[in-house]
């Protein structure tokens, strides 16, 4: 019963399985009485159609026995075996997915072959141990005396080196400002003379700041690729080891190797793992981390700006970094890599569509519009998921529907079989219609994109999804009127349950809606100055107590104010709830008709929904002709 746009990304292991399985479809084990047992692909098809009754996995032999409804016969289920060997690594994922869809999964250990495997297993362990010891011994005696094998830090080079990254600026899209800033770095690497001739010092370090998946690593690789220099990379978390001194020795090692191959790029991912503010924290600092950081600073100071090494570091939290890192001569350039805007997403989609077969009905611009909040990595993943869906549906190209389904999978979760007709289904239908109708009728709400009562693996029984307002998303500016309408829409589900089924019958299905509404209204009161308490900020955003600071000033208001905040929040919520109720009551005929249609059709898109509403009420101006999306 989610009524909002979610951008959390749930990877769908199931989809990955399907991609694998389409390539490899041998059948092991004959099914009794069937000439051609279904292939793995057909099995997945049956899963999707909700025809599979139970699966018994025999993971020793790598087969599964499937019991499925057979439309060809009258009620006798079809029983067949499928080969699981090609997907061995993902059997647990498969199990989880099947279970999530309510399919019985059993494990069976077959007797035959077990004894032999047992013997092999028993023999294997001592043999492996011996071989291991042999190598350990050989390494320590051959490599310059004993102790070599124990010389961690040095012997285990934990950084990666790529002589050629093969990434070009063309592969990075949608983050134009960052790209432009960094274009210059390529020139530093390629033609340092141009700068040194006029006495300019080439910068040593660039700090890329931005959320995960926005293309920081990609950008660093593109710089190396464009300049044609090697790319050394290490992650900050790999510097930080249990043993004091190991991190520092890794830093030394890394810089030594890099100097040998200059000009080059050193990329330090997650630099916040080492570069946190020193001396912060309760009960003293972390010696190891400080040593590593000091070593890093020493190394950066130790080489001249013109040796041709440029260090690029990435983090999503610049605020926690030690200020010493940001001094001139160190990471003195900061480049922000933000989540892409609508236009940026369109560009990124174009890049990733290059190697995909898209059908003519796919409109990348519409997809960009439907994916606010997606970072580059999410968009790349989206197109890949869509391609997997297309392959599984045995199409030769990716259709708009595949992309649409992939967006829903990523944002809301896998679909589950629809509920059987009954009270729950009716209740969910009314609940979602409540959200959807308010979204349609309220002047300041984003219009409806679609409403559905097909449940999702995330636990949502259905959802009503708005078309987000791109301009608002990009600017991050939300008006008070918009927020209030959003709260009213959020109450639509509960209000509809209440009106139609009675207060005694309202359900827990609205708890997520209530939580969101409460948190939004609280912020209106305490952070945005949008209540009768006046234009003042009472709480800092994101008020976590983070090591070392920020304890004392937790609440910046008196108990008296605290009580008034609670009272304001409650008042606004109550007003919004009453508004939701009264609009739905006024449109009770439309509500019934919409719910009936939704029960029958299970999904309605915005257009269809609005055309029904129009028979009963006048649509507000904003809903007259919204852009049609997929
Ligand atoms: P970060 O380092 O910021 O977490 P990555 O650079 O590792 O993100 O991005 C992961 C993948 O996502 C990239 O390899 C690329 O396929 C895709 N990607 C991310 N951002 C972009 C972008 N701006 N343009 C094109 N592809 C992108
Ligand atoms: Zn809801
Ligand atoms: Mg990265």
Task: Tag the structure with descriptive keywords.
630 residues; alpha/beta; Rossmann fold; 6-stranded mixed sheet; 4-stranded mixed sheet; globular; disordered N terminus; binds adenosine-5'-diphosphate; binds zinc ion; binds magnesium ion
Describe this structure in words.
The chain folds into five domains: 2-26 and 114-143; 40-110, 2-Layer Sandwich (Signal recognition particle alu RNA binding heterodimer, srp9/1), CATH 3.30.720.210; 158-336, Rossmann fold (3-Layer(aba) Sandwich); 342-411, Helicase, Ruva Protein, domain 3 (Orthogonal Bundle), CATH 1.10.8.60; 423-624, Methane Monooxygenase Hydroxylase, Chain G, domain 1, CATH 1.20.58.760. The protein contains 22 helices and 13 strands. It has helices spanning 13-23, 40-49, 91-100, 114-142, 176-190, 192-196, 216-227, 236-239, 246-260, 272-275, 287-302, 342-353, 364-370, 376-392, 400-411, 423-441, 470-475, 480-501, 511-526, 559-586, 588-601, 606-614; strands at 52-58, 63-68, 78-83, 104-107, 160-162, 205-209, 231-235, 264-269, 309-315, 333-336, 448-452, 463-466, 603-605. A hairpin with a 4-residue loop joins β1 (52-58) and β2 (63-68). α9 packs parallel to α11. The structure holds adenosine-5'-diphosphate (ADP), zinc ion and magnesium ion.
Tally of alpha and pi helices: 22
Structural class determined from secondary elements: alpha/beta
**Based on DSSP secondary structure assignment, what is the total number of beta strands?**
13
**What general form does the structure show?**
globular
Largest sheet: 6 strands, mixed
**Uncertain parts:** 1-35, 110-114, 140-155, 543-553, 625-630
Cα-atom radius of gyration? 30 Å
- Strand fraction equals 5-15%
Query: Could you say what the CATH topology of the largest domain is called?
Result: Methane Monooxygenase Hydroxylase, Chain G, domain 1
Give me the CATH superfamily of the largest domain: Peptidase M41
CATH uppermost class of the largest domain: Mainly Alpha
Strand order across the biggest sheet? 5-7-8-9-6-10
The helical percent reads 40-55%
Could you give the distance between the termini? 22 Å
CATH architect. name of the largest domain: Up-down Bundle
Q: What ligands are attached or bound here? A: adenosine-5'-diphosphate, zinc ion, magnesium ion
């Amino acid at each position: 019963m989610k009524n909002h746009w979610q951008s959390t990304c749930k990877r769908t292991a199931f989809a990955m399985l399907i991609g694998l399985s389409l390539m490899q479809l041998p059948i092991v084990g004959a099914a009794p009485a069937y000439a051609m047992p279904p292939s793995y692909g057909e099995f997945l098809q049956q899963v999707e159609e909700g025809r599979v009754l139970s699966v018994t996995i025999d993971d020793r032999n790598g087969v599964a026995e499937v019991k499925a409804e057979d439309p060809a016969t009258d009620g006798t289920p079809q029983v067949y075996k499928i080969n699981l060997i090609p997907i061995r690594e993902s059997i647990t994922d498969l199990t989880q997915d099947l279970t999530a869809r309510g399919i019985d999964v059993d494990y069976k250990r077959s007797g035959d072959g077990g004894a032999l495997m047992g013997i092999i297993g028993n023999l294997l362990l001592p043999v492996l141990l011996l071989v291991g010891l042999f190598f350990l011994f050989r390494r320590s005696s051959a490599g310059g005396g004993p102790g070599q094998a124990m010389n961690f830090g040095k012997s285990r080079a934990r950084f990666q080196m790529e002589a050629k990254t093969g990434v070009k600026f063309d592969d990075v899209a949608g983050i134009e400002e960052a790209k432009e800033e960094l274009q210059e770095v390529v020139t530093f690497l390629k033609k340092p003379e141009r700068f040194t001739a006029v006495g300019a010092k080439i910068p040593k370090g660039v700090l890329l700041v931005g959320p995960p998946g926005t293309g920081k690593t990609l950008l660093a690789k593109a710089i190396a690729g464009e300049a044609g220099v090697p790319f050394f990379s290490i992650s900050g978390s790999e510097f930080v080891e249990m043993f004091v001194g190991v991190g520092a020795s890794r830093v030394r090692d890394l810089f030594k190797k890099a100097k040998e191959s200059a000009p080059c790029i050193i990329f330090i991912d997650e630099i916040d793992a080492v570069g946190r503010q020193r001396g912060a924290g309760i009960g003293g600092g972390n010696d190891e981390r400080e040593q590593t950081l000091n070593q890093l600073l020493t190394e950066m100071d130790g080489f001249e700006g013109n040796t041709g090494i440029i260090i690029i570091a990435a983090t999503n939290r610049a605020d926690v970094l030690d200020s010493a890192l940001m001094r001139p001569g160190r990471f003195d350039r900061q480049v922000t890599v933000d989540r892409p805007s609508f236009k940026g997403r369109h560009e990124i989609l174009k890049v990733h569509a290059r190697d995909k077969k898209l059908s003519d009905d796919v409109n990348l611009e519409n997809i960009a519009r439907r994916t606010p909040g997606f970072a580059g990595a999410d968009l790349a993943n989206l197109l890949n998921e869509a391609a997997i869906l297309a392959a599984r549906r045995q199409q030769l190209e990716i259709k708009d529907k595949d992309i649409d389904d992939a967006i829903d999978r990523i944002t809301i979760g896998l679909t589950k079989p629809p509920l059987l007709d009954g009270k729950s289904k009716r209740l969910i239908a009314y609940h979602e219609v409540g959200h959807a109708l308010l979204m349609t009728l309220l002047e300041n709400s984003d219009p409806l994109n679609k409403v559905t009562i097909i449940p999702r693996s995330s636990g949502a029984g259905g959802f009503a999804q708005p078309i987000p307002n791109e301009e608002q998303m990009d600017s991050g500016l939300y008006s008070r009127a918009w927020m209030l309408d959003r709260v009213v829409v959020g109450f639509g589900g509960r209000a509809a349950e209440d009106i139609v089924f009675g207060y005694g019958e309202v359900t827990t299905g609205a708890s997520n809606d209530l939580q969101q509404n409460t948190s939004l209204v609280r912020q209106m009161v305490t952070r945005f100055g949008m209540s009768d308490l006046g234009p003042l900020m009472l709480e800092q955003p994101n008020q976590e107590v983070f090591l070392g600071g920020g304890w004392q000033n937790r609440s910046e208001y008196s108990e008296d104010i605290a009580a008034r905040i609670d009272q304001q929040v409650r008042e606004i919520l109550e007003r919004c709830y009453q508004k939701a109720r009264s609009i739905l009551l006024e449109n009770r005929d439309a509500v019934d008709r919409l719910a009936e249609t939704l029960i029958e059709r299970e999904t309605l898109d915005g257009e269809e929904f609005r055309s029904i509403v129009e028979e009963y009420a006048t649509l507000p101006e904003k809903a007259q002709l919204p852009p049609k999306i997929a």
